[in-house]
Write a structure and sequence with these properties.
The protein has about 425 residues and is an alpha/beta fold. The protein has 2 domains: about 5-30 and about 85-320, Type I PLP-dependent aspartate aminotransferase-like (Major domain) (Aspartate Aminotransferase, domain 2), CATH 3.40.640.10; about 330-430, Aspartate Aminotransferase, domain 1, CATH 3.90.1150.10. Helix content is about 45%, strand content about 15%. The protein has helices spanning about 5-15, 15-20, 25-30, 35-45, 65-70, 90-105, 120-130, 150-155, 175-185, 205-220, 250, 265-270, 290-305, 310-320, 325-350, 380-390, 410-430; strands at about 115-120, 140, 160-165, 165-170, 170, 190-195, 225-230, 260-265, 280-285, 360, 370-375, 395, 400-405. A 7-stranded mixed beta sheet has the order 1-9-8-7-6-2-3, with helices on both faces. A 4-stranded antiparallel beta sheet has the order 10-11-13-12, with helices on one face. Strand 12 (about 395) and strand 13 form a beta hairpin. Helix 7 (about 120-130) packs across helix 13 (about 290-305). The longest helix has 22 residues, at about 325-350.
């Protein structure tokens, strides 16, 4: 093991032994190299002659680039073409951390880590798995989950997903979650994704305490718990009784045995899917600056050893937009569009004629909702009819149909639901 990894491990063990025990073997061995190329390049910065870093520069010292590309971007060359730090751009990291506090006021002055930039939330989940999932580890995930979880946790890191039913009697299923955590051997790795993909459900204010209490019970027993909080659709909540903050706010101060990872980013929150900018932020009760710095260094080391760094251009564009006085208003306008589509699909589904063929699972937020087919209908066959006869595309999970109302104009939502209705009738030969 490299001495730099040993040093980070010693800091973590001294600050919080439980966090060290949560680390995977990869996580224990990883470090951000403060010696070698990076250190020598940093020492040479600003020197008259700098032949250290693997970038090309013009004779006048500006980043070398194709003129055609330079004409396409209205930003200084230095904010576009050079490598960005593996930690992410400092100004953007500071901005995003301030956003976390602003969007989650109940955090108060709770000390959390600086966010580490990732190549979207998918990459954030992968890096989190690198740090905390060993071969054979159980990862507890609701039964309604994004299929990339399987690729990441099982195919990439050889963990094993254990599901619990997300819903019970129209609400969050506390009982099944409790049972899964009680049966877990060794550390508990729990993934919570709200608003949930594919269901579009976020727990109600009245349900959040129950989830937090279940985690606290296991921590009090001495179990070590890492909670990966997939906040990809954070902020897109459409009902008043829904919990609007991230559950990260409750877990970041819950117990010394509970490490909370907030996985979020601009992808869905700011409608920049192709920018690929996400973040990993840590919180644990009693977390110190030294502990967080050690975790940040390990995380940045995993990023550097994986893809080196995140797009400099994407980060610079976002930082410029976040500094705009029109940012909040522009974001509200997009939220209002999605909210209107949510209200429309909820209203359309109230038509009693549809209940013979399908019913909606609970939904209240995000981009998606699901309908469950009835009466012997097969979702995959209905999907094919929709494509071939009604020029309509949906996603199928088992016998559920996921509808991305985020991608459907409000004016076409009624027709979308009616097309599904007609396809169901076609399948049954009616």
């Amino acid at each position: 093991m490299d001495q730099q990894a040993i040093t980070l491990n010693e800091v973590i063990q001294k600050s919080n032994p439980s966090v060290f025990e949560l680390l995977s073997e990869r996580g224990k061995n990883i470090f951000f190299p403060k010696l070698g190329i990076l250190a020598q390049s940093a020492q040479a910065k600003g020197k008259e002659i700098n032949a250290t870093i693997g970038e090309a520069v013009e004779d006048d010292g500006h980043p070398m680039h194709l003129a055609e590309l330079g004409q396409l971007v209205n930003l200084p060359d230095a904010l576009v073409f050079p490598y960005a730090p593996s930690f992410g751009k400092p100004d953007l990291r500071n901005t995003w951390k301030s956003f976390i506090y602003k969007k989650n006021p109940s955090l108060g002055e709770t000390l959390i880590s600086m966010p580490i930039a990732t190549n979207g939330i998918t990459h954030g989940i992968s890096i989190s798995s690198y740090l905390f999932v060993d071969e054979g580890d159980t990862v507890i995930v609701p039964d309604l989950y994004w299929e990339n979880y399987s690729l990441i946790f099982e195919n990439n890191y050889l963990g094993k997903i254990e599901n619990f039913p997300l819903f019970y009697e129209g609400g969050f299923n506390h009982t099944e979650l409790a049972q899964k955590m009680e049966k877990a051997e060794g550390k508990i790795i729990l993934v919570l994704n709200f608003p949930n993909n594919p269901s579009g459900y976020t727990p109600l204010i009245s349900e959040i305490d129950g989830i937090v209490d279940l985690i606290a019970i296991e921590a009090a027993k001495g179990k070590k718990v890492v909670v990966m909080i997939d906040d990809a659709y954070f902020g897109l909540v459409y009902e008043k009784e829904v919990y609007t903050e991230s559950i990260f706010t409750r877990l970041a101060t819950l117990h010394e045995n509970v490490l909370a990872l907030k996985l979020d980013g601009a992808t869905k929150e700011d409608y920049v899917w192709g920018f690929r900018v996400g973040f990993i932020t840590y919180g644990v009760k009693g977390g110190t600056a030294g502990l967080y710095e050690a975790l940040e260094n390990k995380t940045a080391g995993a990023v550097r050893g994986n893809i080196s760094n995140i797009s400099h251009l994407s980060q610079s564009l976002l930082q410029k937009v976040y500094a705009s006085e029109n940012y909040d208003q522009s974001k509200l306008e997009k939220f209002d569009i999605l909210h209107a589509r949510y209200e429309k699909i909820k209203q359309v589904l109230e038509n009693p004629k549809y209940k013979r063929y399908f019913s909606a699972l609970p939904f209240n937020s995000g981009y998606f909702m699901c309908i469950e087919l009835r009466g012997g209908l097969k979702a995959e066959e209905v999907r094919k009819i929709l494509l071939e006869k009604y020029s309509t595309g949906v996603i199928v999970f088992g016998n559920l149909i996921r509808i991305a109302f985020s991608a459907v104009p409000e004016s076409k939502i009624s027709q979308l639901i009616e097309n599904i209705h007609l396809a169901c009738q076609d399948y049954l030969g009616q």
